[in-house]
Amino acid sequence: MTRPNSTPDIGRLLVSCPDQPGIIAAVSRFLYEHGANIIESDQYSTDPEGGAFFLRTVFHRAGLSAMRLDLERRFAAEVGMPFGMDWSFTAAGVPKRAAIMVSRYDHCLLDLLWRARRDELDLDVGLVISNHADLAEAVRAFGVTYVHIPVTADTKQEAERRQLELLTGNFDLVVMARYMQILSAAFLAAVAVPVINIHHSFLPAFAGAAPHERAHERGVKLVGATAHYATEDLDQGPIIEQDVVRVTHRLSAAELERRGADVERTVLARAVQWHCEDRVVRDGARTVVF
User: pLDDT tens for residues 231-268?
Assistant: First the structure.
């Protein structure tokens, strides 16, 4: 699948490696010698002496799809291995194939589906998985398959097995759009694609049930959200995007929750878009976002 106005000959290259002289020159020379024209480039070094180097390059190469595998093979031999790189080529005209996991809160889910339908996200949503049946009708109105897989303490392992049957090998990305279950380390390893999660800014101070009521009681002045890659350490994965809005004592707990929902959906949408545009590189416990 390609977007209606996308250019199939646009490619992206993401690189991370130990910093050293000659990286940009080697990448630029390789692309030039293989008929590519660089149209966008950005780089970052944690330290020019012994640090880590990160690069995102967007380029045009006529007939890219036909030569991509050969280009990757040659890049690995000529540039990737000599510089000790972790790297990836992607086609800008092909949206990421995504599955969304959700519980009962619908604001992030419906926002992603709406943006994807309007081609505001480079995202092809093929499946929604939920541990509740509540949102089935709303999702199917977008023409997306909805699968209800209940989860209890006794059935969690079996539920994850069923989820993996649907996900493994079929998607490039999984988005937890307020999926109120903890994904096990075994699940995250087996699904073998990035998983993006969203949570409100009251963690860890107001974890658990009714965080907005307890935040209201404490008179919080900021409401925000964090989007991050999911890891086995709950809500501790590398952060992609965050934002906040100011609130006052005049707002009720319900109004705090509404303001929080607004921030959550915009933060998650930005994080998903940046990931789909290959702007995010993981650097240990954090990210570099170009």
Answer: 988 778 999 999 999 999 999 988 988 998 999 999 99
Q: Where are the domains of the chain?
A: 10-91, 96-289
Q: What is the mean pLDDT of residues 89-102?
A: 95
At residue 147, the 3 state secondary structure works out as: strand
C-alpha distances (whole Å) from 213 to each of 236, 254, 263 are 24, 8, 18
Which residues are marked as active site?
235
Class of domain 96-289: alpha beta
CATH match of 10-91 with 3.30.70.260: yes
Q: Cβ distance 238 to 259 under 8 Å? A: no
Longest dimension (CA), the chain: 64
Report which DSSP code applies to 237.
S
| Beta carbons of 122 and 150 less than 8 angstroms apart | no
Strand partners, 90: 12
pLDDT for residue 202: 64
Return the bridge partners of 215, or none.
Answer: none
Q: Which of 273, 280, 290 is nearest to 111 (CA)?
A: 273
In this predicted structure, the answer to whether residue 142 has a pLDDT above a threshold of 90 is yes
